[in-house]
Structure formats: C-alpha cells, structure tokens
Amino acid sequence: MTVPATAAAPGLESSMLARAARIMYCFTAATPELTLTDMARRTGLPSSSVHRILDQLVQLRALERAGSRYRLGLGLLELGALAAQQNRLREAASPHLHRLHAATRVPVHLAIPDGHEIIYLEKVGGPPAGGAPTRLGGRQPAYCTGAGKAMLAFADEEEVAGVLGAGLAPRTPATITDPQAFRRELAGIRERGIALDREENHRGVVCVATPLRDGLGRPVAAISLCGAPGRLNPQALTPPLLMAARDVRRALSARRG
C-alpha cells in the first residue's frame, strides 16, 4: 500500500510536518506495527529521511520502537483522549449555550484552560461591541479575562503562582497587575462563583463568567457572556449563566454515566 501525498498548498508535500504525517498514517488497525522498510515503501520516501523522522517522532512520544518495529506512541493516545474529552464537553454544552444566548441575546463563550491562557472552544452569537478577539480556537491570557479568572479562582496554587510569576502585564488601564490585588480578586470569585472582566483584556468589552468544575472541584472549562459596558448587566445575567452551567454539568454527568 502506498500512502498518497496530501493534496494541499504548494510545498506542503515536501515539508517535514507533511512527511511525518504520511509516516504516521501508514499505521492501521490491520498493521499496528511496521518496520522502517515498510514505511519507506508505503510512503515512497527515502529510507534515510524516514529513519531521521522516525527518530524524532520517537523522541516526541508520537511513536514507540520495539526492536526493528514501530507503533503509535502514548503521546498520541494522550492527545486523542484529550480531543475526545473536549469534543464531549462541546457537544454536551452546545444546546445549553444556544439556549443561554437565546435568553440573553449576548455572545456566549465556552473556554478551556491551557497553561497561562484560555482557548475558546465554542462561541454562540456575533462579536460583542468593541470587537473583542474571541474567535473559535482563539487564545487569550487567563489573568485578565472573565473565563480565565473564573478557572484560576479554583485552580491549584501552583498554577496560580505560575501565572503570577509570569507577570500580570497590563492589557488595558483596567487590568489588575498587582499580585495581592489579583489574589483578592480570585478569593472574591470563589465566594460568588462569578468572575467579572471589567474591560481588563479589551477596552469596550466587559464579561461575566462562571467555571465548570469536575467531581473533584477542578476547573475544566468556563462559560462567559460578553458585551459593551453599560449594556451588559452582570447582576441580571448571573442567574441564567449559573443555570446554564448547572445544566452543562448535568449533561456531562449523564454522558459519563
């Protein structure tokens, strides 16, 4: 079997990434283990190139080597499990996010933590006034966003210390940059269950957010509502936001059950 070259932009076929992908796609349920010769034959790549790429993939834990044979590594399995978990979260949350948007008529976001940043896993509704960069798959700092602060409030101390150690660079004049003030902010969020972004990340945009936590109390995601100052009323939006979060948690529990 020969693995066909990927149909893509000019130059991609010969890139290191494309060649590595062609090698990994050689593995199938029927052939979970292959030799270097097998992969060179299937991909049509020179054996020297395949050998060099295989060494790098093994170091990255994308592949494992047992003697002269290779198989997919634990690194890929871990990524696959993470992708499946995120897909379950998005699918479980989606109907409740749409219901929340219909009830509030403001943009709704579902964000997950990734180091010192958050990633927007889902977005319902158009851009809030002010044009905040909240595209699907986009990243923003955790310390100055409503969703990020909602998750940091319930994160491990090591994670919070890491964020503080990296510095609280001012994104706007409203960004909380003092470590002690930031810790007080997180303490308040733990008491209320609600985090506010008061134009701390993007001027002209405010947000109200609440975390989604697992059975051990660890934050796995957050739901936020964003809009223009003076038009978005956090107090009025808190009840429907908390109700949506409760419904998402129930949906996730039902899926796990």
From TrEMBL:
Gene3D superfamilies to which the protein is assigned, alphabetical: 3.30.450.40, Winged helix-like DNA-binding domain superfamily/Winged helix DNA-binding domain
Keyword ATP-binding (UniProt): no
Keywords: DNA-binding, Transcription, Transcription regulation
Keyword Transcription set for record: yes
InterPro entries xrefs: GAF-like_dom_sf, HTH_MetabolicPath_Reg, Tscrpt_reg_IclR_C, Tscrpt_reg_IclR_N, WH-like_DNA-bd_sf, WH_DNA-bd_sf
Domain IclR-ED: 75-257
Pfam families per the UniProt record, alphabetical: HTH_IclR, IclR_C
Start and end residues of each HTH iclR-type domain: 14-74
SUPFAM superfamilies, per database record: GAF domain-like, Winged helix' DNA-binding domain
The protein's name: IclR family transcriptional regulator
Species in which this protein is naturally found: Actinocorallia libanotica
